[in-house]
Amino acid sequence: MIKREIGHSGLFVNPVGLGCMGLSEFYGPAVTVEAGVSLLHSAIDEGVNHFDTAELYGMGANERLLGEAFHDRRDKVIIATKFGPTRDPKTGAMTGVDGSEKNMRRAVEQSLKHLRTDYIDLYYLHRVDLDTPIEETVGAMAKLVDEGKVRALGLSEASGATLVKANAVHPIAALQSEYSIFSRDIEDTQLGGVREIGASLVAYSPLGRGMLTGAFTRDHKPADGDFRRGQFQPRFAEGAYEANLDLVEEVKAVADALGATPSQVALAWVLGRGEDILTIPGTTKLANLETNLGALELRLTDNQTERLNALADKVSGARYPSARSANINA
């Protein structure tokens, strides 16, 4: 199985990992614990060893699911989790970002308990706390490495400049950010910082939050209860949604020429951008996971890559609504 190192951490993973958020929240109803554990065990059997979660996802439910699945096979998996964003414990409403050492200590102990493990492989600040210097947050996180509770550190949606400042305090192994055929803005911002410090880019939503799978149509849209409905995802808003579906036809055309699926083309495009890039597409279905892994064998021609490169500038809608973008590239 092909493996890539996360920065210079000594952690080697399958370039196609599994983003676990959707198992517990945001993309419709949570899966049952039984179904989730079954999928996670099957993922290991298929060669996946990089699993991404966060305190935020399901307010601990996602970490508990991973704990149930992996507590007796810990040596087979690389677990990444995150802290920072806070939620109202009663309503689940987002209440801010807290990168303080006090909050970090609370969060990491809770994550270790939920994950049923003594250590976390990769621990991220999920969003930059604009009220706390990044040097202060990363300095506190570095103590966790010294204590053996964490093996490597990462930041999510941080700017290139923030990465460099953070890395001066303690080596940063990874930046997690959205990156796909439809979302290439980090190439002009964060990616330079990633490469300056020798980190890896962990690309979340490499399938454009499902848009690039080709599964959606004008009549088949995200279901009620899915966070892509309403104002939370501008690219799925009326008008933008239909325009973006038209762009997906180009991805389908490339896939047809290769005898592949749109998902495989989308993942192969991301993985082809550099050996320092990893992906964590999410799914609740084993068949989709198996399809995603097929991207590892796919090679795009230069012409096909150029066709796909042209799509990002034509996408309708921003990655996030303006009200939620303050901590993006921060």
CATH class: Alpha Beta
CATH topology: TIM Barrel
Rg for CA atoms = 19 Å
N-to-C series of helices and strands: EEEHEHEEEHEHEHEHEHHEHH
CATH architecture: Alpha-Beta Barrel
The CATH superfamily is NADP-dependent oxidoreductase domain
Strand percent estimate: 15-25%
> In order across it, which strands form the biggest sheet?
3-4-5-8-9-10-11-12
Structurally, how many domains make up the residues?
Answer: 1
**Overall 3D form:** globular
Contiguous uncertain segments of 5+ residues: none
Helix content: 25-40%
Return the structural class: alpha/beta
Measured between the Cα atoms of the first and last residue, the distance is 35 Å
Total of helices: 10
- Record field, number of beta strands: 12
| Biggest sheet statistics | 8 strands, parallel
What value does the average pLDDT take? 95
Q: What descriptors fit this protein?
A:
globular; two-stranded antiparallel ribbon; TIM Barrel; eight-stranded parallel β-sheet; 330 residues
How do the helices and strands line up, and which of them pair or pack?
Elements: E1 4-5, E2 12-13, E3 18-19, H1 33-45, E4 50-52, H2 61-70, E5 78-83, E6 85-87, E7 94-97, H3 101-115, E8 120-125, H4 134-146, E9 150-156, H5 160-169, E10 172-178, H6 190-197, E11 200-204, H7 240-258, H8 262-271, E12 277-279, H9 286-293, H10 302-309
